């Protein structure tokens, strides 16, 4: 037994060393070192702040927001403010914001729903982007309602191809005379908020962009309002 146990310990130590050791440039070496280096917090001495990075499989993110109103006294209410990943190139949610960035203020959230298993996704047109991979325009059957021309994001499309059917969050935005339907891929916390506490969702942000601004137009997924309602 001892002869078997000792080599096992040596192998375990070797694996740990491969994961945790660093080379002469300070980079982690070993299995999946690129992921480790890209997600390790870094202290910025010049700005006296911490640069924090993380890998995310989701393109909708819930953040705590504290809106307040000033009357005779100041009252605070904790809310959940969603931000949305603004893909780049021809599939930006909104052209007026930086690509590859989580943004708010692209319109009022008119409707939010975590798709149930009885809801149906029909891919109307599958597309491909060299950087982001496959995405699609889909038709959703939500209850008895048919919602056409929905942008299925690349991460939602990846989940669909992987057989994940539990974490799709459908959002309808409205802004001025335009609307946009998007199917995101959400994390467990975001899904729980939408399903169980929709009353705490901040439907529109203090930051509000001019959808018809001069920067290349609103983007291909914002359409003239057809009075879509649920």
Can you give keywords for this protein?
single chain, 230 residues, alpha+beta, three-stranded antiparallel β-sheet, 19% helix, globular
Structural write-up:
The protein is α+β, with helices and mostly antiparallel strands. Helices cover 19% and strands 36% of the residues. The protein has 4 helices and 14 strands. The strands form 4 sheets. Strands 8, 9, 10, 11, 12, 13 and 14 form a 7-stranded mixed sheet that branches. A 3-stranded antiparallel sheet has the order 3-6-7, with helices on one face. It has a two-stranded antiparallel ribbon with strand order 1-2. The protein starts with a helix and ends in a 6-residue tail after the last strand.
* Secondary structural class: alpha+beta
Strand portion: 35-45%
Uncertain runs with pLDDT below 50, 5 residues or more? 1-6, 13-31
Rg of Cα set: 22 Å
N- to C-terminal separation? 67 Å
Strand tally is 14
Helix content: 10-25%
Largest sheet: 7 strands, mixed
- General shape: globular
Number of helices: 4
- What series of H and E elements makes up the topology? HHEEEEEEEEEEEHEEHE
Mean pLDDT: 82
Topology at a glance:
Elements: H1 2-20, H2 33-39, E1 42-44, E2 49-51, E3 60-65, E4 68-70, E5 74-76, E6 79-86, E7 101-103, E8 108-114, E9 120-129, E10 133-142, E11 145-152, H3 154-161, E12 168-175, E13 178-185, H4 188-196, E14 223-224
Parallel strand pairs: 11-13
Antiparallel strand pairs: 1-2, 3-6, 4-5, 6-7, 8-12, 9-10, 10-11, 12-13, 13-14
């Amino acid at each position: 037994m001892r002869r078997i146990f000792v080599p096992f310990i040596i192998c375990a130590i070797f694996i740990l060393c491969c994961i945790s050791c660093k080379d002469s440039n300070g980079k982690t070496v070993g299995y999946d070192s690129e992921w480790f280096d890209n997600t390790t917090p870094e202290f910025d001495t010049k700005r006296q702040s911490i640069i924090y990075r993380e890998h995310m499989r989701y393109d909708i993110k819930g953040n705590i927001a504290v809106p307040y109103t000033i009357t005779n006294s100041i009252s605070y209410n904790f809310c959940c403010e969603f931000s949305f990943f603004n893909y780049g190139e021809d599939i930006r949610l909104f052209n007026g914001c930086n690509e590859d960035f989580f943004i708010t203020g692209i319109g009022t959230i008119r409707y939010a729903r975590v798709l149930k298993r009885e809801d149906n996704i029909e891919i109307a047109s599958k597309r491909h982007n060299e950087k982001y991979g496959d995405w699609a325009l889909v038709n959703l059957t939500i209850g008895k309602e048919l919602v056409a021309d929905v942008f299925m994001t690349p991460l939602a499309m990846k989940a669909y191809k992987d057989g994940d059917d539990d974490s799709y969050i459908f959002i309808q935005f409205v802004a001025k005379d335009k609307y946009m339907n998007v199917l995101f891929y959400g994390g467990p916390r975001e899904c729980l908020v939408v399903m169980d506490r929709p009353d705490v969702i901040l439907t529109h942000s203090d930051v509000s962009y001019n959808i018809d601004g001069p920067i290349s137009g609103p983007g291909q997924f914002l359409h003239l309002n057809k009075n879509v309602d649920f």
